[in-house]
Design goal:
The chain is α+β, with helices and mostly antiparallel strands and 339 residues long. It is 33% helix and 31% strand. The chain contains nine helices and 14 strands. The chain has helices spanning 4-20, 29-59, 61-67, 155-165, 204-217, 222-225, 275-278, 284-289, 321-338, and strands at 79-88, 91-101, 105-110, 121-124, 129-133, 141-145, 148-152, 190-196, 226-237, 244-254, 257-264, 267-274, 293-299, 311-315. A hairpin with a 7-residue loop joins β5 and β6 (141-145). α1 (4-20) crosses α2.
Length: 339
Amino acid sequence: MIKKSIIATLIAGLLFIILTEDNFGHMNTVKRAFLIFTAFIVLCTCIYCFVLAFFSFISGWRVLSLKFPLPETVQSDSLLFYTQSVGMGYMYYSMSVDIRFIDAGLIFSQSRFFTFMHRPFIVPYEKVEHPGKINSSDSDLEFTVEGIKMRMSGESAEALIKKKMNPSLPIVSLRSGKDDPDRSMKKGGEKFITRKCRFEELQPGFISQVRDFIKHKKIDGLQDAMVHCCETAYMKKGFFLGTVYHQYTDLLLTGEWFFWGVCDGDGCSSGCAKIKDITEIHDPEEILTLNPLEIRGINITGFHYDESDLTSWRLNVGNDEESTSFRRKFAELVSKYRK
């Protein structure tokens, strides 16, 4: 990028010639060549600035930089992804955007060549709305910020997916490392991992939907009634790009209810059923052996809970130690209602 001091010098020289030359027709060759060269540089600079300003407006970069200006100091752990490709509005910035993850949000900044009218800005994580993958086989993530449609790809997109699905994750854990189980997977490979956890550690979308439902049903004492809570993570690594697709199945048992949620990059879809209703369809032996486990229940993803319209769900429970523990507890509850 041409330094501002050089451009200023050329413009000053151009003005000097124009103001001191009495007869432009008899101007010597050196002066004429310098005048043409300077005029050309000034013209190119003006076109360059106009194009970048145009890009800034049609992409929405200008709007976001004014809406979310970069704070003067960034005093937190951070994770930086260089030369990322980002789509914004009607523009696609190919391998020119640096994206930094901090505790407060994502910082977008342009490479030095594109800084004109592209001041860095920060987007709080809660302002990233409607995130979703284009499809499960690639790493492109689409979302909106203040009505502006954006697209990210690569490692930065995967990091944002992890952060949105689990806001409590520390920044340093968003980058894939050598100890990351995703890296140990072979292309085309699949993996199930089940862990017993607390309700607060499940996927945020599932937690929100369960809480909305129990508030609607006026169910009291859910926290005290919880019997078992676990999450199964299903991972599959693509053959070509090596992108790992994640799907989480959250499972929650209470004394009377069974809640489940299926969450991935597109969001979270949840359902529930009363244990006594499940006993009419499944016996304990099926619960101990079937995978996926097929359950019929109410869709509680939205705000309209139609208990007359039951939906079939296929739940990946897994076959490891924690999965077996959940199955046994589920089978015990079903046996209890059968008696």
